[in-house]
């Protein structure tokens, strides 16, 4: 039976982020299955309108946001503005807090949906939905709050959330019917009272679409390997690996796709061209580019409550994966990979669960599940 589904996500196509991929792929698949899907997101102009029209998605834009990120100038004042930016983020969740008000306003008149899906980060998206989703006058019969990363239990940031946001999180999740998390170990990062509401639903991707035309692999003359994603000092930290890599006398090429190069820029500068930093590229292009490399590198999170979604993309490339913990280095394994011995590759099993067809069914099944 055709369902009426509403998706609230500040991240959406063509934004290059895990939350955007999650919301976009799910919207496409739900429409493909015959459901009516409405997406409420930030205004990204004609490119998103064209995309949604091509895929049969009903698109609604939020009004333009008024709050802007703190601009950090060069020079001596940069320290002050960085501190101001951090303080506003910690105290007020600035500038994303505005999303709570925008979503509350956008959802205020919405009614009659079978399923409401909201996506975080940022968490003010959930807050706005909770604010609008009354106990009696509900927007949808079932609301699922999808949490890619925890909020109050986030261990990847150097600073803990302010204590008063605890009450915002509790208010939000008490109104949600279900809370979707990507991995079982993430459950520990949430308040115990919400554990019964939690459902494990991993990232999803249309395997056929993203692997269409994938080239047949040919070994590179110079051993070439890559990484795609962000870095977190002390949490998802590449420095020990790069320190060791720069001692190697062999010819190699390590290509890093990231929009946060601060931790690795110095290594690239000292590598004599062996370590190359590139900005993010569209996901399908990235998968095809990585598929031409001899192997790929994964930097593990130091916390078990979060797991990188990039392993799904790595899986689709068909290339061996070397996994590097942030707090120790297995030099023997690195040497093996540099010599094209991939015996220690990460086992890629159970990845069928990440097919978007299976993920969408998991969300739809929540309409018939009570806590």
Automatic annotation (TrEMBL):
Pfam families assigned: Glyco_transf_4
InterPro entries per UniProt: Glyco_trans_4-like_N (IPR028098)
Residue ranges of every copy of the Glycosyltransferase subfamily 4-like N-terminal domain listed in the record: 23-208
GO MF terms held by the record: glycosyltransferase activity
Residues of the signal peptide: none
SUPFAM superfamilies named among the record's database cross-references: UDP-Glycosyltransferase/glycogen phosphorylase
Enzyme Commission number: 2.4.-.-
Keyword Repeat belongs to the record: no
Top-level taxon of origin: Bacteria
Keywords in alphabetical order: Glycosyltransferase, Transferase
UniProt name for this protein: Glycosyltransferase
Phylogenetic classification of the source organism: Bacteria, Pseudomonadati, Bacteroidota, Cytophagia, Cytophagales
């Amino acid at each position: 039976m055709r369902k009426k589904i509403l998706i609230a996500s500040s991240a959406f196509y063509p934004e290059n982020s895990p939350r955007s991929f999650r919301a976009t792929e799910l919207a496409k698949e739900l429409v493909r299955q015959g459901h009516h899907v409405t997406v409420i997101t930030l205004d990204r102009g004609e490119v998103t309108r064209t995309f949604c029209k091509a895929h049969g998605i009903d698109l609604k834009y939020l009004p333009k946001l008024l709050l802007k990120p703190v601009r950090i100038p060069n020079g001596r004042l940069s320290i002050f503005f960085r501190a101001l930016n951090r303080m506003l983020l910690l105290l007020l969740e600035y500038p994303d807090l505005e999303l709570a008000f925008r979503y509350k306003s956008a959802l205020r008149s919405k009614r009659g949906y079978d399923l409401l899906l909201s996506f975080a980060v940022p968490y003010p998206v959930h807050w706005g939905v909770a604010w609008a989703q009354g106990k009696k006058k509900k927007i949808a019969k079932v609301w699922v709050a999808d949490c890619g990363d925890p909020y109050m239990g986030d261990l990847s940031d150097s600073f803990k959330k302010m204590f008063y946001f605890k009450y915002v999180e509790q208010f939000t999740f008490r109104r949600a019917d279900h809370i979707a998390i990507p991995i079982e170990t993430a459950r520990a990062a949430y308040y115990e009272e919400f554990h019964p509401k939690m459902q494990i639903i991993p990232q999803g991707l249309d395997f056929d679409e993203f692997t269409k035309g994938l080239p047949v692999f040919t070994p590179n003359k110079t051993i070439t390997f890559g990484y795609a994603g962000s870095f977190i000092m002390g949490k998802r930290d590449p420095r020990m690996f790069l320190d060791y890599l720069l001692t190697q006398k062999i010819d190699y090429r390590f290509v890093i796709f990231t929009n946060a190069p601060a931790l690795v820029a110095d290594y690239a500068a000292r590598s004599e061209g062996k370590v190359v930093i590139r900005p993010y590229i569209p996901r399908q292009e990235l998968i095809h580019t990585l598929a031409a490399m001899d192997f790929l590198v994964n930097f593990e999170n130091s916390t078990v409550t979060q797991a990188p979604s990039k392993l799904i993309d790595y899986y689709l490339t068909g290339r061996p994966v070397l996994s590097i913990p942030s707090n120790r280095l297995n030099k023997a394994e690195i040497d093996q990979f540099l010599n094209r011995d991939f015996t220690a590759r990460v086992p890629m099993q159970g990845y069928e669960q990440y097919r978007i067809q299976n993920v969408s069914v998991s969300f739809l099944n929540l309409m018939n599940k009570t806590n």
